[in-house]
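Q: Can I see a sequence and its folded structure?
A: Here is a first one.
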Amino acid sequence: MNDSPRQATRLEAIGGRYDPWLLGVVIALAGLGVVMVASSSIAMDSNPFHFLTRHVVFLGVGVGLAYWVMRTELKTVEHYNQYLLLACFVLLVSVYVPGLGSSVNGARRWINLGVSKFQVVEAVKVLYIVWLSSYLVRFRDEVNATWPAMLKPLGVAVALVALLLLQPDFGSSTLLLAITAGMLVLGGVNLPRMSAPIVVGLPIFAFIAILEPYRMRRITSFMNPWADQLGSGYQLSNALMAIGRGEWMGVGLGGSVQKLNYLPEAHTDFIFSVIGEELGFIGACGVIALYALLAGRAFHLGLRCVEMRRHFAGYCAFGIALWISLQSFVSIGVNLGLLPTKGLTLPLISSGGSSVLMTCVAMGLLLRVSYELDRAERQVALLRGEATPSAEAPVVADPPTAREKAPAATPKRGTSRLNPRVEPTFERIA
């Protein structure tokens, strides 16, 4: 009998790593944002560095929040999913609280935090994605098989959209509904059943869009901005002129003319037009490629998580990928005259404290997904004997335990209220 202890690496001692491609593209977009905010806002205030300083401060706070999220276990985040949904409604109602809510240009979308104003819908996007991811994990089988399970998240989304339309915020409402539909499809909902709410809801939403005169003016100016160049088509016509001046290589960083009090909101909603003018067609395509890489990597991480039965992490990755890809598509489409003006910022690039903070939180959550996925893959590889303990993992004496001797039960497929949820384990690999 050999009394010498067997040398092994504990599974819990194995760490993961953050996805380098994801981290790299996030840093690239954030760095480009700092440069372009500095360039686009230099003539907008008596202090040429006012908006740049503000943007850098919010970005610094956002990085701190992202780091905190990156160090938080996803199971801890999932545990508080119901409180996160409650926070969504509390935030949207808080804008109507006297002394707390703040109105800008007739829209009540902000709460006053003293040092700055915070646009609550930016936090709602992240919190809602986390709640919906948890819901799809808990009711994945029912969502595909029954009407009530599918309609419940749609009902929650409609309630949130109703509060957003009261502010009013039509752009974010559209984005929230699109994210809900996309996540339900990726979560395995029955497509013929899903088509019924869409067929009913689209005419209603279209009617709401044209009900307000200012939204109707946006649609008509989008179709022909030159018909009223100094009126309803002012924003889009100046954006198109900025894009056109850039040609192939751009006029050079800092050389934009349209940002000099011609192009409104040059540092937020229309910052892509400044990019097109200063960096040209090549620079604009580079920005689009960075967003494509970010969304593609997030979808890839989500797919790998689902394949490893880490469904909550996978759905979080899918939701964030849908959010970033849809919002960047709409923002770029507005700047190019392909879509009516929506008032959505370009994630990680546009100036805006609320957007910067919550986008950083979302990126921290996405990086946490990549970390836990890599950790799980290393644990599986070690148990299969396909990998040896890394030099970083401590080697400890670990005699055989009952876990190693007893056969593990075959994990159940699917999660529902009928079948209790089973977290992924690595006790036995088929």
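Q: Show me another, different protein.
A: A second, unrelated one:
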Amino acid sequence: MIVVVPVVALVVDASYVTASVSSAQAFKTATLLKTLNVSALITGEVGVGKKSLARYILPDAPMLDASDHDELLTALSGISKIIITNLENSPNIKKILDIVNNNNIRVVATAKNAYYNEFADRLFSVKFDIPSLRERPEDVEELVQKFIKEASLLFCTKAEFKIKNFKPDLSQNSNSLRRQVMIHYLLQDINENELMDIFQNYLANRLGSNSDYKNFLYLYEVPLIKAGFNKFKSQLQLADRLGLNRNTLRKKIADNSKYL
């Protein structure tokens, strides 16, 4: 019998974000699973916390990716529990699950969302599907605050995080959100030399043609135009502040239209 549990959970470094009611319920469900000798399958998009949730349930179990077939086969010898990640990448899932079943090994596995496999259905008595952060705005707010604290410690600063124009990048859930917060926190306090070092590092392996100046001019013009529009609100004021006539500004906007 398969029990499908439609829960919402987000795990960050072994701690659960429980800003939403459903996330709080997920923590209770995972805590219950820690005491049960059953196998579970956790599905969801990248960055929703599948691996961390699996580690919370089986804190002492080895964790291996399903694509590492030979290493996984070796690990299954003489163990009673294991975490298998990215189950959809297994080159021979039937063989793996047959060994697990025949040796009564407890498994907590992860897979992409909407994953289905008939052999997996027979083994896993409990299933978790973790929805994306796009469906959990309360958890996003909580995560942003957690990542701000993390960034403050990483960069050894207590500078206030400027969140006014911050729009969360949830394309890869917590993965993209953490990266975005880190970069945003770093850039808001960057100095000119550090900024030039970033540009130099970016351009180092990209130069080589006789039109590089023109090709990379957008790296300067686009941020300048965007920042100007945000501050001055109109082309007329922006042209005046940049010392350009309006026709020149319009041409630059047209030339960089795919970035603006």
